[in-house]
Amino acid sequence: MASLRLEHVGKRFADTTVIHDVELDVADGEFVVFVGPSGCGKSTLLRMISGLAPVTEGSISIDGKRVNDISAADRGLAMVFQSYALYPHMSVRQNLAFGLENLRTPAAEIDARIEAAAKMLRLDTLLHRRPTELSGGQRQRVAIGRAIVREPTIFLFDEPLSNLDAELRVAMRAEIMALHERLGTTMIYVTHDQVEAMTMADRIVVLRAGRVEQIGTPLELYNHPRNRFVAGFIGSPQMNFLPARLVSAQPGSARIAIDGVEEATSPALAIDPNAPADAAVAVGIRPEHVRLDRSDPASIEVSVTIERLEQLGAASFLYCRLPSGVPLTVHAAGQVNHRAGETIAVQLPVAAIHLFETSEAGRSLTLADRAAAG
Which residue in 155, 200, 156 sits closest to 174, CA to CA? Predict the structure, then answer.
């Protein structure tokens, strides 16, 4: 096991900077997930940690030792790739043994490590098979087993489940989490799937265009997003954003009026005291926090038209539009008695509202101690 530190790490290709001044501390035994949209730099950052890509600036340290100039083979890390990267002409046992044989590990130790990893990953009855004779989930377990037998100080996972179907991804997520619990080894996991990030991570690093937007536990990011980008990326379905303006604003307090909604001025909200008075803002509210009833008196009532309805039995999704044309998604528990084309009133509880500056990455104007829904 090992700790990891990134200090002012950057990466350039010619005149293009793809990683900007990343600072991160990963504790010994922690499970950290890098998440962000395609092209945000998360895989590049992982490759820099592994030693497969050089660092342009800054420093990477493992257990306090700077490793910028140490080769990938000598960093004591193991990487699991999206493509499995198994040798098709070798059996499962031979795939597991290959790296250890190259390191001239004694045969008895190789056998012992393979047997332990195979038992842990339920591969012990498959050791004689070749990769073409395995399912996708079995191949992924072999790729993970190949990393385990090396006994690395840190595991690195680069979107390892993206080639699997939805049901198998859920099962493999549980297996990787159970593996982390058993081994207690530091793990860095890259994914574009925010559901994977939320369910697996001790902490999440949200990346955008090569920059760290926010680092925190899954619920910290869900309840207290630092900016509009993080708020929209974390949570499924995505947070709703409604154009609005601050009215009767005073330092630390304001009411909001949603554009195009008559008499929808809210109760007073506690806001960032540095927020400008009478400014345009984006009202953020998660679909699961929009209410179809009037059970919360501290709410803003909004009239919407249902354009599409998904009834899943245990939950319902209403895809609506305000009179101004702005979309609003509602996630309701259970089943609802509504239909497409119907106009209904929905409630936006003030306790669940987030306020942001209007730009795509606009900062949060909501005080951290009241940015979660009841």
Answer: 200
